[in-house]
Amino acid sequence: MTTESVVFETNIKSLKFLHRGKVRDIYAVGEDKLLVIQSDRLSAFDVIMDDPIPGKGRVLTAMSDFWFRKLGHLVPNHTTGIDPESVVSGEAERAQVRGRAAVVKKFTPLTIEAIVRGYVIGSGWKDYQQTGAICGIALPTGMKEAQKLPQTIFTPSTKAPIGQHDENISFEQAQKAVGAAVARQVRDAAITIYTQAAEYAATRGIIIADTKFEFGTDAAGKVHLIDEILTPDSSRFWPVSQYRTGMSPPSFDKQFVRDWLEKQPWNKKAPAPRLPAEIIAKTAEKYHEALRMLTGAAA
Q1: Does 243 reside within a domain?
Q2: DSSP state string for 114-165
Q3: Which of 105, 129, 154 is the last residue in one of the domains?
């Protein structure tokens, strides 16, 4: 993999800084738009690692752009098509946004995250083992880890501040949080998007086991798809060639880092252990490989 510049934090002076999340830095573009920059930061167990993953932000941006174009007909989204380099000043700022940013419409984010699951894995597997259900949705007995679900399910969660964990909630709780009509719209849109994306990904040798979407509303209350979509950060990608039930399949995401961290003497609170160069390089390659397989392009 070629050597490339790494962006851990951005410093855009020509725009008003609004927020720095686990991965994204956000700036105001006028009153109704945002500049969203994907850094190379990586978080695991809700802790931001001190070591960035080279090229990660460019991969996330390229993959989101790909999916927004491919699935844009299914639900309105926040994309504008405005070149991020056109809203900042000077080469130093343009270098910080090049290939890793988007100018998007500013919407009011909903207070829930829209999680869609096609397979029983992760927290869903733990829930199933304890209750025979995932987020209150009853499932057949005797299912194995990583087994495909009889049908795709929608399992919303709360949005927790940085450093805290999201909590799975029932659909009824989601209805109370955002209103029954909006909750149904989000559920139906999320399942439709996931289903079409998963069907396409399967033709490219990738299983999308589960994913997380975020939605927002405009001034009129219309629901739009926002944030990143169907990336290795928001989704669990498995190679079809290595898929097996009864185990957690290898994935094209930060699971590689999570697995390494699980073996370290660490309490899952900041500061995290420093990542070895080999782990950083292998994780970067996983992100790039996922992009190449899904889109046929490099970041």
Answers
A1: yes
A2: EEEEEE--THHHHHHHHHSEETTEE--TTPPTTPEEEEEEE--EE-PPTTS-
A3: 105
Alpha-carbon span 14 to 64, nearest angstrom: 25
- Whether residue 207 is contained in a domain is answered as yes
Domain residue limits at 99:
16-105
Mark 112-139 as b/e (b = at least 16 C-beta within 10 Å): bbbbbbbbbbbbbbebbeeeeebbebeb
**Domain count of the fold of the chain:** 2
pLDDT in tens, the chain (299 residues): 344 689 999 999 999 999 999 999 999 999 999 999 999 999 998 899 999 999 999 999 999 999 999 999 999 999 999 999 999 999 999 999 999 999 999 999 999 999 999 999 998 999 999 999 998 899 999 999 999 999 999 999 998 766 567 888 999 999 999 999 999 999 999 999 999 999 999 999 999 999 999 999 999 999 999 999 999 999 999 999 999 999 999 988 787 898 899 999 999 999 999 999 999 999 999 999 999 999 998 77
User: Which residue, 107, 104, 195, is CA-closest to 149?
Assistant: 195
Q: Is 161 domain-assigned?
A: yes
Neighbouring residues of 53: CB distance < 8 A, sequence distance ≥ 6: 40, 42, 280, 283, 284, 287
Task: At 253, list the tokens.
Answer: 């995401």
Residue 293, judged by CB atoms within 10 A of its CB (0-12, 13-18, 19+), counts as middle
Distance between CA 188 and CA 201 in Å, rounded?
20
What are the tokens at 2?
Answer: 């070629």
- Contact between residue 271 and residue 50 where contact means Cβ atoms under 8 Å apart: yes
